[in-house]
């Protein structure tokens, strides 16, 4: 006799991703910068765009296959923030366009991030 164990599928919206809840697309958590990202794979060029709601639009040229676009985004952001790829942690969204990343002690800040932090945190 074989017993089939089926896992109950839960809708994606019922389980919110675990991450820091922030009021804008970026915030400091100690010396770590937390970014909420709306990713765009298959773009013509790697670029940091404008905020859209509580997310920062970031485009990458890599295709969204097996997390390669996210890996490429981490390498791109490492260069933009003056850190190594190992200093960027993907909190959630490795296989999704909605992501949260934590950047440990960034050495430089892109203009859009610097503007937002100065408005919200007086940095």
TrEMBL record:
Xref: SUPFAM superfamilies: YggU-like (SSF69786)
Domain of life: Bacteria
InterPro entries cross-referenced by the UniProt entry: DUF167, YggU-like_sf
Pfam families (alphabetical): DUF167
Gene3D superfamilies noted in UniProt: YggU-like
NCBIfam families named among the record's database cross-references: DUF167 family protein
Stated family: Belongs to the UPF0235 family.
Protein name: UPF0235 protein SAMN05660284_00012
Organism expressing this protein natively: Formivibrio citricus
